[in-house]
Amino acid sequence: MVKRDILSSDGSLMIVKVELEQGFLGDIDQHPEEQISYIEKGKVEFEVNGEKRILNKGDIQYIPSNVKHQVKVIEECVIMDVFTPIRKDLLPV
């Protein structure tokens, strides 16, 4: 399960709170927006451009523009994703 809440999408920045359940495996993603993911709760494995890294509460992952990435949830987690510019594909229609 994925639950997303857009907390702000002002100016050229967007912050999105993402809640993911244990065992979730995201699709391989790639987008032109830069991204920083802050792990607020839980434990995840991020694969960015072929490199895997385990992140725990308080850790941060930077994802450059147009780089393939994927997340695997080890423990139920909450991630705060910051994008610049705004990801218009995440805005409600």
Looking at this protein, list some descriptive labels.
93 residues; mainly beta; Jelly Rolls; 59% strand; globular
Explain this structure to me?
By secondary structure, the chain is mainly beta. The protein has one domain (2-88): Sandwich (Jelly Rolls). Helix content is 0%, strand content 59%. The chain has no helices and six strands. The protein has strands at 2-8, 14-20, 34-48, 51-56, 60-63, 69-84. Strands 1, 2, 3, 4, 5 and 6 form a six-stranded antiparallel β-sheet that branches. The mean pLDDT is 97.
Secondary-structure element pattern, one letter each: EEEEEE
Shape, please?
Answer: globular
CATH fold description: Jelly Rolls
Rg (C-alpha, Å):
12 Å
Instruction: Give helix % range.
Output: under 10%
Describe the main β-sheet briefly.
6 strands, antiparallel
Number of beta strands: 6
Overall CATH class: Mainly Beta
The CATH homologous superfamily is called Jelly Rolls
CATH architecture: Sandwich
Question: How many domains?
Answer: 1
Mean pLDDT score:
97
- Output the structural class: mainly beta
Distance between the termini: 21 Å
> Helical stretch count?
0
Low-pLDDT segments, ≥5 res: none
Strand content: over 45%
Protein name: Cupin domain-containing protein
Pfam family, one: Cupin_2
Domain Cupin type-2: 18-83
InterPro entries: Bacilysin_H2HPP_isomerase (IPR052535), Cupin_2 (IPR013096), KdgF (IPR025499), RmlC-like_jellyroll (IPR014710), RmlC_Cupin_sf (IPR011051)
